[in-house]
Write a sequence for this structure.
């Protein structure tokens, strides 16, 4: 009985083992199927990625091939931009660059945003500028407007280091046809040309100074952008005199106003342009409310170099001192332009001094110098004093206009 029971137990054990083995085999089957499914999913994912890469590469190849714009409208701007860039690099390799007219990007030829300066705490402190060390600033290489280099087709500013394409200036509308032609004729000469930044001396005023000036215009009923006749200028001067000194102009002062009107109207039109009137009032504000040291800080490196050149030409004995008469003559010389017949297109504007009718190149040089020496005493004027006294006249010579925005000292 014991043996039979033992066999029965063995049979049960065998059956249990069979069940366990079957379960184990079933588990292996399930595991292998899940692994295969997982591997299949991974393979499918890899295939999908490969397909995406293939499609992307296909799209890139298609972008490089010419085709109708309607088939791929999204890639059309990219193809156009690539074409412009390829042309730009091609012309750049040839030493020409890209002409402004060929630039199709609307955001490049936009008018500049002018920002008025702010007074700094150290504006009134003296600025040490050496006489014997020329600064010799180098002009920019790329156009200020389109930021493209085109070799010899750039026109420099005589005051700052900016350069411009004539096409860019025409596109942004900052120069009329006659002014554009004058720029082409004078930019590379000894006379030079001031860009729209430097030509507009009104940009030297701070927000507060400009607000005060505009309030005065409003009270005097001066209409911006309008021309002024002599009576309007006299009326304006009377109003300012009452505001500042609480009295009317004297007869001598009225004659001075009329003389200033004539200086602002060199072509004898009987009226003065708004820009000339605005520049004159701007310089008056600077002269009244800024110190000489502050004005010296407004001068550019080119202007300082030209001041050095004229001072050194007057300092014959090289002792660093000139006379008061010579200083006055130099200040007057900033306002005169030489005739176009005597201009040389081979002279760099970075190394020329102020030109006047009484300059060494003029036949009336000795006579004008003698008159200056007779009228003014021989007080000694050092380089630092000369630069401080001349700063307002150098700034007044920036505009391209032929008008005299400050009465000449001689």
């Amino acid at each position: 009985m014991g043996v039979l029971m033992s066999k029965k137990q063995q049979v049960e054990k065998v059956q249990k083992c069979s069940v366990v083995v079957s379960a184990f085999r079933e588990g292996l089957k399930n595991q292998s199927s899940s692994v295969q499914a997982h591997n299949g999913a991974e393979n499918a994912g890899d295939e999908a990625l490969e397909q995406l890469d293939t499609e992307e590469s296909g799209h890139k190849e298609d972008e490089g091939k010419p085709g109708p714009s309607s088939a791929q409208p999204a890639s059309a701007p990219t193809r156009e931009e690539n074409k412009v860039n390829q042309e730009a690099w091609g012309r750049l390799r040839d030493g020409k660059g890209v002409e402004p007219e060929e630039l199709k990007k609307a955001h490049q030829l936009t008018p500049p945003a002018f920002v008025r300066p702010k007074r700094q705490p150290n504006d009134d402190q003296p600025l040490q500028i050496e006489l014997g060390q020329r600064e010799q600033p180098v002009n920019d290489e790329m156009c200020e407007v389109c930021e493209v280099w085109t070799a010899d087709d750039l026109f420099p500013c005589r005051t700052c280091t900016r350069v411009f394409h004539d096409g860019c200036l025409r596109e942004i509308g900052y120069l009329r046809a006659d002014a554009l032609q004058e720029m082409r004729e004078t930019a590379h000469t000894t006379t030079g040309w001031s860009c729209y930044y430097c030509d507009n001396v009104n940009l030297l005023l701070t927000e507060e100074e400009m607000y005060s000036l505009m309030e005065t215009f409003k009270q005097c009923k001066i209409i911006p952008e309008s021309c002024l006749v002599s009576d309007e200028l006299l009326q304006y001067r009377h109003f300012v005199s009452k505001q500042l000194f609480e009295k009317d102009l004297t007869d001598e002062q009225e004659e001075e106003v009329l003389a200033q009107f004539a200086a602002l109207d060199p072509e004898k039109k009987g009226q003065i342009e708004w820009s000339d009137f605005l520049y004159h009032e701007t310089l008056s504000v600077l002269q009244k409310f800024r110190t000489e040291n502050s004005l010296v800080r407004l001068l550019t490196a080119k202007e300082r170099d030209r001041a050095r050149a004229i001072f050194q030409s007057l300092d014959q004995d090289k002792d660093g001192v000139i006379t008061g008469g010579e200083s006055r003559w130099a200040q007057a010389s900033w306002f005169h332009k030489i005739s176009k017949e005597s201009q040389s297109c081979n002279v760099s504007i970075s190394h020329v001094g102020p030109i006047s009718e009484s300059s060494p190149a003029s036949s009336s040089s000795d006579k004008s110098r003698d008159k200056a020496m007779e009228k003014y005493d021989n007080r000694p004027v050092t380089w630092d004093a000369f630069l401080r006294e001349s700063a307002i006249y150098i700034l007044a010579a920036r505009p391209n206009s032929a008008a005299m925005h400050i009465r000449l000292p001689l």
